[in-house]
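Comment thread on ticket #2218

A.B. wrote:
> Attaching the input chain for the structure job we discussed in standup.
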Amino acid sequence: MARTRSFTWLPLLGVWLGACAGNGSYTILVPPNQAASPVRDLAVARDGKRLAVAKALGAQPEHTGEAWELGVWSLDEGKLEFGRAPGEVVSAAFSPDGDKLAFAAQDGLWFIDMNGRNLLASLGSDGSQSPFLHMGQLRRVRFMSVGPSALACGSDGVVAHRAHDNLQRVWLGKPECTALDVSRDGMGVALVFGLRDEHNLAEIRYAETGALLSQLRGHQDTVIDICFAGRGQVATASRDNTIRVWQAKSGQSLRVIPIPPVVTHLACSPAGRVLASAHSNDPTIHLWDADRGTALGVLRGHGGTVTALAISPDGSALYSGAEDGSIFMWSLPR
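C.D. wrote:
> Ran it. Output below, let me know if you need it in another format.
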């Protein structure tokens, strides 16, 4: 049976509103464009008013208006506030107060002062700006929930950066960090490592010291992504085609949710009930009930593989990005 779809153009907001019968409602913030570069990461400010978009390098003709790899959208006004072209950006994150934006590019970690939209960077002897350098490739950046520090996760471990005075230190020297999340209460950091002998392992560590709190053992294949799911719980997604929900403090496995292959991204709602997963070569998004371990539904609308997910701080909306450069906003069940 054909899938019906309706659209309404809102000139003042500059977005498309769409509804796919039986698949939930969505707003198209950025329409698909096969010439655009893939979305790598999405981050929502804690007040829910801004969305940061990290993109890969790619063909970006001027007429598309997409000559940037880092963009910040005003969700109230439905338009791009500003964009920058620092080269391929793999991850972005807002500080808890929304005053800073950190982004991981190929040459290192940068900060932007959101009030003046100025780059905050390490200054060379000649006055030139350069990023906070890393020995290895960066994969994800997230702000600590308390204070001005950001954690950058990459092939050289986890490094803590302080934006206001350029101070950086090795937070955890363990190499090959592939995924990272920080709890909203500022107490814990969830990490995934890609070492050959630990590819099934995820860890929870104390945010202040980096000391080990628990290890999450149970997956039968590589852990791909991790996120805090509220109520002292954390969720992991693995190439063994399962999502597991854990008690963060003890490392106890609470639920195992079978999922389609091959998972690439996982997002958790702040209250912990709703989980969202994206999968390889799949334009759909799967929603899961973390409490019951059951499917909530499948979101259809993207025309290309979904490559990034983020849930709003109040849990009411899911943002998704795709390989065709499109960005959607979906309404989530409460």
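A.B. wrote:
> Thanks. Noting for the ticket: The two ends are 29 Å apart (CA to CA).
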